[in-house]
């Protein structure tokens, strides 16, 4: 009887664990948006704290003011260089197809041949043509365009709704972070609540340091890339630098993504320009890896690159592009919590920063 009861308990616990895992899987998108709201709240609080310090305003006023400061900065940026940036991105949009065609001609490969068709083949000749026996498949073309428009509209709507949820959720968190932190702490056993509260406070501090360092890195990489593109005569240097700075937010693979449009544009000019562009981005990448990042992130946890790379891959497969965007801060928090609460506390072991091997 005792064995049967023990088996029933084990089965019940296992069923509850599986049910909880399935429930978390179903709400994984909401959990990711909730974490994005936390990151946005950290940004608001990073602006609100100096306002509170120098003006003696309460949190009730400093958070909305910090939001206005953020919107004002975005507005000023748009007014000062937004028009020029828009024109240069338009230039990029016009030049990229021609650049791709020139690359295809020089390599002797068509882009369509690299994309699998419905049967899994990569031969462009095996694709069904829009013109069969001289009769254009108008309905098929219309259906294809309609599907693309509907897909783009749905994607845009989902993106806007997600952005609104992140902003509103971040505002709520920034207004009263203590209440939400206490709510999480209450879920922990009493003898560990003090440690949990301290860990959550440290998570906020680490996130602020990481965001500050990331913004500095993005600004410097964008500046160096833009100035370098202008110096070598690459078209649309402002757009090239801006895109390179934005993609710097994605760890490890971001700088390589940022170099793709610049290299395509350079190939449309000449092979020499492509070589100079590759040298430019390699130089900027080396400066970012060995000088900029170590200097600006010396107070932030140093996550092993292997963990970051496969963390980006896992989050990208689970959550798509949004998962890739939040892979940096989410990986940082996960690494920090594992190190502080498990490695140092439970195992009573302090990880070494340098290996003797």
From TrEMBL:
The signal peptide stretch is none
Superkingdom assignment: Bacteria
Main localization, broad class: membrane
Q: Name one Pfam family in it.
A: AI-2E_transport
BP terms from Gene Ontology: transmembrane transport
GO annotation, cellular component aspect: membrane
Record protein name field: Permease
């Amino acid at each position: 009887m005792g064995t049967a009861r023990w088996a029933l308990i084990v089965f019940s616990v296992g069923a509850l664990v599986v049910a909880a895992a399935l429930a978390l899987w179903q709400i994984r998108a909401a959990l990711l948006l909730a974490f994005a709201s936390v990151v946005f709240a950290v940004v608001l609080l990073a602006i609100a704290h100096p306002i509170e310090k120098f003006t003696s305003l309460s949190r009730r006023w400093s958070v909305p003011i910090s939001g206005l400061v953020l919107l004002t900065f975005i507005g000023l940026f748009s007014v000062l260089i937004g028009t020029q940036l828009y024109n240069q991105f338009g230039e990029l949009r016009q030049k990229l197809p021609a650049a791709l065609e020139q690359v295809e001609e020089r390599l002797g490969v068509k882009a369509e041949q690299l994309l699998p068709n419905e049967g899994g083949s990569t031969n462009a000749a095996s694709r069904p043509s829009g013109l069969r026996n001289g009769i254009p498949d108008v309905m098929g073309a219309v259906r294809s365009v309609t599907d693309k428009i509907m897909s783009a509209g749905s994607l845009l709507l989902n993106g806007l709704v997600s952005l609104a949820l992140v902003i509103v959720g971040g505002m709520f968190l920034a207004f009263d972070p203590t209440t939400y932190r206490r709510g999480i702490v209450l879920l922990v056993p009493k003898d560990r609540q003090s440690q949990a509260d301290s860990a959550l406070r440290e998570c906020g501090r680490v996130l602020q340091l990481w965001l500050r360092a990331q913004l500095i890195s993005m600004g410097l990489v964008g500046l160096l890339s833009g100035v370098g593109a202008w110096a070598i005569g690459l078209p649309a240097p402002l757009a090239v630098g801006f895109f390179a700075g934005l993609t710097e937010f994605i760890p490890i693979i971001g700088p390589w993504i940022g170099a793709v449009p610049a290299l395509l544009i350079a190939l449309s000019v000449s092979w020499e320009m492509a070589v100079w562009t590759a040298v430019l981005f390699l130089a900027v990448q080396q400066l970012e890896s060995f000088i900029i990042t170590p200097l600006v992130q010396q107070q932030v946890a140093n996550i092993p690159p292997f963990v970051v790379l496969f963390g980006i891959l896992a989050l990208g497969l689970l959550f798509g592009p949004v998962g890739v965007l939040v892979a940096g801060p989410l990986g940082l928090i996960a690494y920090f919590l594992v190190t502080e609460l498990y490695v140092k506390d439970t195992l009573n072991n302090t990880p070494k920063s340098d290996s003797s091997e």
